[in-house]
Amino acid sequence: MPKSNFLCTSCLHLMCDDCKSIAEEYHELLVLRNRALVQAERKIEELTSHLAQVQRIAAEWKHTAELFTRTRP
After folding, report:
1. Cα(50)–Cα(56) distance, rounded to whole angstroms?
2. Is residue 25 included in any domain, yes or no?
3. 9, part of any domain
4. Which residues 6+ apart lie within 8 Å of 23 measured at CB?
5. Which residue range is the domain that position 35 belongs to?
6. Residues 6+ positions from 1 with CB-CB distance below 8 Å
7. C-alpha–C-alpha distance, residues 41 and 22, integer Å
8. Is residue 45 part of a domain?
9. Cα-based distances in Å from 42 to 1, 30, 52, 54
10. Which tens digit of pLDDT belongs to each residue from 58-70?
11. Which pLDDT value is given to residue 31?
12. How confident is the model over 14-55, as pLDDT tens digits?
């Protein structure tokens, strides 16, 4: 089993191989979860920015439509 950065040296010496394996798996899953959260946060920021852009465009079209309906008899 590769040496873990997740467990301290004392724990590595005291724990059985099964427990070390479980700790390594937990660490791997934790890293994957954190990466997924970062990616999700980036996507949220991207979509929020896109939503704001679309809302600005919609407001411009609404304003244009209001001007058009005012000028019609």
Report:
1. 10
2. yes
3. no
4. 4, 6, 7, 11, 15
5. 19-71
6. 17, 20, 21, 24
7. 28
8. yes
9. 34, 18, 15, 18
10. 999 999 999 888 8
11. 95
12. 999 999 999 999 999 999 999 999 999 999 999 999 999 999
Q: Give the global pTM.
A: 0.65
Q: How many domains does the structure of the chain reveal?
A: 1
Distances 44 to 31, 40, 48 between C-alpha atoms, Å: 20, 6, 6
User: What whole-number distance in Å separates Cα of residue 42 and Cα of residue 71?
Assistant: 44
Q: Which pLDDT score, from 0 to 100, does residue 12 have?
A: 85
Asked if the structure places residue 7 within a domain, the reply is no
Check residue 34 and give its pLDDT.
97
Instruction: Say whether 16 sits in a helix, a strand or coil.
Output: coil
